[in-house]
Amino acid sequence: MSQLAAFIEEKRQTKPILSMTHVVYGYPSVEESLDWMARLMKEGVDFIEVQFPFSDPVADGPSIVAACHKALEQKLDVETCLSQLGKLANDYPNSRIVLMSYLNPMYRFGMDKLAKRAAEENIVGLILPDLPMEQATAYKDACKANNIDPVWLVTPVTPPDRLAMLASNASGFLYCVARSGVTGHSSHEGKVKQTSLDDYLAQIKQHASAPLGVGFGLRERAQIEQLIGKADIAILGSALLDAYNKGGQEEGIKLIKDLFH
């Protein structure tokens, strides 16, 4: 069992569902983003998904895209990000960090180097939503060699044979996109009805032995509660960023407490 999966199993002994929060590294500044991550870890979130920004984040909606573009007004580099995240991981051992980005900046950094440095900084998983598993042999090998989990994504429109392939190869956890579309939006168009979501997660469980994390569009406590017993992690992204933009850290923490406590 990987360290990521072991952490989830341990936490699930005392929690009905784990919390994962999403933060864009460098937004609105590097210092403020790191301070926000530290606050979230102090408040007891189980995971932080840290997004290293990229200019064309194709899986993300308007809130996260805007944050990425704002962050990229600064000079950011992957090595500094990893080192700073390592300090947070050391300071707050009751939470875990997963690094998310897109293939371009990570490929330029180097896949072997990425996995090695992530392991050295106690980052337990990597998410690259635009890297297909079929083209990820070197990436998977680097992760395996360094005991890092590559986290794969499935969606409600993933073909059944591909869903089975991704689910059966998942380690750490499998990121289950709750509905069609990009992050953040929860309009009726593209929204998966709860009965459909239940069927979708049940279908995934037929193939996946890894824990399931569910994200995209989670904004209400009822949505979190509906996942209990069907998934292991609820992932809060755009809603948390919107709350932070509205009222800073206090508004973000209030949302987390409203949803998870």
From TrEMBL:
It holds the Pfam family Trp_syntA. The keyword Lyase applies. CDD domains: Tryptophan_synthase_alpha (cd04724). The active site is at 49 (proton acceptor), 60 (proton acceptor). The keyword rRNA-binding does not apply. It catalyses: (1S,2R)-1-C-(indol-3-yl)glycerol 3-phosphate + L-serine = D-glyceraldehyde 3-phosphate + L-tryptophan + H2O. Gene3D superfamilies: Aldolase class I. Its EC number is 4.2.1.20. Pathway: Amino-acid biosynthesis; L-tryptophan biosynthesis; L-tryptophan from chorismate: step 5/5. GO terms for molecular function: tryptophan synthase activity. One of its GO terms (cellular component) is cytosol. Keywords: Amino-acid biosynthesis, Aromatic amino acid biosynthesis, Lyase, Tryptophan biosynthesis. SUPFAM superfamilies: Ribulose-phoshate binding barrel. InterPro entries: Aldolase_TIM, RibuloseP-bd_barrel, Trp_synthase_alpha_AS, Trp_synthase_suA. It is an enzyme of class 4 (lyase). Belongs to the TrpA family. The alpha subunit is responsible for the aldol cleavage of indoleglycerol phosphate to indole and glyceraldehyde 3-phosphate. Tetramer of two alpha and two beta chains. This is Tryptophan synthase alpha chain. The gene is trpA.
